[in-house]
Every structure is written in structure tokens, then in C-alpha cells.
Amino acid sequence: MTCFPVPGFQYTNGQLHAEGVALADIAASVGTPTYVYTTAGLTAAWQAYEDAFAGQDVTICYALKANSNLAVIRTLAKLGAGGDVVSVGEMRRALAAGTPADKIVFSGVGKTRDELVAALQAGIHQINVESLPELDALSAVAVELGLTAPVAIRINPDVDAETHGKINTGRKEDKFGIDFAHAGEAYARAMALPGIDPVGIAVHIGSQLLKTTPFRKAFDKLAGLVRDLKAHGVPLSRIDLGGGLGVPYKHEDSAPDYHAYAKAIAETVGDLGCHVTLEPGRSLVAAAGLLLTRTIFVKDGLHRRFLIVDAAMNDLIRPAMYEAWHTIVPVAQPAADAVLADADIVGPVCETGDTFARLRPMPPVAPGELLAFLTAGAYGAAMSSTYNSRPLVAEVLVTGDRFDVVRRRPSFEDSLAFEAMPDWLSP
Ligand SMILES: *Cc1c(COP(=O)(O)O)cnc(C)c1O
Q: Which residues are catalytic?
């Protein structure tokens, strides 16, 4: 059994390592469950974009929602990434991590007035507006503050991203963006409203796309619209193509073709005279992270072998939420001739949905043994919760042979600190 090839993680002397650090050492010092990210993995993912877009002038704004740990954001910002944020909390994180304000794009269907105020005051690069009411609200706020909002209008291109239903965002029945047919009206309104500078147009069709055909379809439609809008006097100078490039989660999946993606962009929107922004999230962080967990019990049921681990759906919700698949490997390298037998890998939370894998061929695993869930750097820790009163999962970043805790595990006292007993219940 070999480790699924993700840059930054490999077996050395029979032990799975994150770069030069043995995962067993991290578990001994930080405990489990813990997310472990490698700088090498983040850098490799960034480099894949740099290589594919060499010669094309694009700005890459990392979509923070995939992993909003400050150290991860800063690692990417130091490589040159801007930020795509979907809440004022993410905007503040991006700024706190050192992302320049003029490289921050604010997306999302439901920005509150306070969020619009904060975005304008921070002087970010662009606000991606998703509805006419939002356009009106933003105009009012901008006028009040005496500022001008650089706006891109997000268009729903009605293209099926051919991905999981919960992460398909560019069909006409999805909640995102302004209908293609209403684009003209939206820009007319944007041009008439005070405090609004309609500089751009945006799309984002979905997540975990392994093929580039849906992208090409959407970008092609968008290019036609841009030509049309420009012909009607809309001064568009920026195109934001969103994120969505997928990652292989299984051995047999192949990675999307970055060069085909870059080529699709060059061939569809390359000659419009607009600056291109991309908003990748998952593809920059997924492979750079794993979730380290310890086996609590091995239960041999009548019909199943259960590996009960100390990570649960509150730490990694993707399998429960999207039927997602993670490669799961032992930290101690199994013998080459280890016999594989099916096992269900489950967490301790009281939900049947707290199941990471069913009938997964696994080598023998002993209670107490460490396992690693690979390709867990995206939508893992960022979606974690404290369900079942489990503390938020810890996070570690590795570089070379060093590691540091980049989010500590809260203590029980920390967890209680936000709660208070009302007077009438106090003793
Ligand atoms: C989620 C999201 C992204 C990032 O998507 P990935 O699939 O993680 O690359 C980019 N832009 C917008 C508007 C998003 O909502």
C-alpha cells in the first residue's frame, strides 16, 4: 500500500512524514485529531497556477473559505496571492494575514450593510455584486461615506458545472448571480447609480470541476456578453472568472489540466482587453493538508469491521455533506504484503452520517494506531464545528523539518467561556 502521491507527504523509514516531520511526532506533541498542512504542498499548488498562466496577466485571489487559517493565508499571500472573501470576517482575516487590500475581492449573495461599509472603508479592490437590491444598498452606503465602489456584477451563466449538486452554482436555478438575461438592465442601473463604478463582470460556476469543458462554455458565454455590454457603452475593464478547479481525491482520478484551463481562458476572454482575476480555493489548499486521527477502537461486528477514530464529522464534514471520498492511510507504513480487508471508518459522533468510509479495503489497524485522511486541506478545518461538545480541531503548519501549531485546540474552559447562566437559573 503506497501513500497517495500528494506533494509534501511521504513515507520515510516506514513512517508517514509531512515534509521532514514525522506525523507521529506531531500527534505526540499536539494530540489528535489535528489538521497538518505543508508549506511545500501550498507552494506546489501555487506554482501550478504560475506555470499554467506564465505569459498571461492574471491576478489570483485565494478563496479564503476553503481554509481561512491565518498562517495558510499568509503563506499564500507571500507567494503573491490576493484574497476572495465572502464575509467581513474573512476580509479581516485576509488583511490580518497581510493580503494587500487592493488584491481583495468581496463575493457573496447576502452582504449586510455593515459588511458593505467595512469593505468600502478598507478600500478593497472590488465588490462582486449579486443582485439589484445589493447594488442599490451599496450605492446608498457609498454615497453616505463619500466613496466610490469598484463593482463587478456576478452573472449566472446558466451552465452546469457537472459537479456535486451542493457545489454547482452556475445554473439558472442556483441562488448565485444575476440572470444572464438581466445583465443589460443591471449594468444600466449600475451606470446610473451614484457611488458605483461598474468596472467588471464576474462568474463562478461551481467547485471540484475536473474537466475544463464547463469552464469554457461559461467563459465563452461571458465573452459574448462582455462584447455586447461594451458595445452598449459599459466601460468594463475587469473579468473575474471565479474558482472551481478540482483536485483528485482518489488514486484513479486525474488532476484537471491546468494548461487546458489557461488556454480556455486565453481563447475565450483573452482578446477583450480586460484584466483577468481568478478565485481558486480548493485547488490551492486541498492536497497540502491531511487530517491526523487516532484509532480508538476496532470493533468486529457481525457484518462489518469498524475502525472507530477520534476524528468526527464535526472536524471533517465533507463525507457526510457531499458524500466526499478521502484516501485514508495508516501513519505507520503497512507491510508490502499486508492483507487488505474491508472496514467502515467512523467517528464517535452520535449520527450515522458520522461515517468517513464504508467497506474501504484497509490493512490491519490496531487500536491506538494513527491514520491520515489525505487531501483534507480544503473545506476541512474551515467547516469544522463543536457538535457533540467536541473542541474545535487543532491545526499545524509544517515547513522543512519544523512545525508549529497555527490554531490551538481550545480547552474545555475556552469552550464554556462564551456561555452564561441567566439570572433566574443562577443558584
Ligand atoms: C467558493 C468560491 C470560490 C472558490 O471555489 P473553489 O472550488 O474552492 O476553487 C471562488 N469564488 C466564489 C465566488 C466562491 O463562492
A: 350
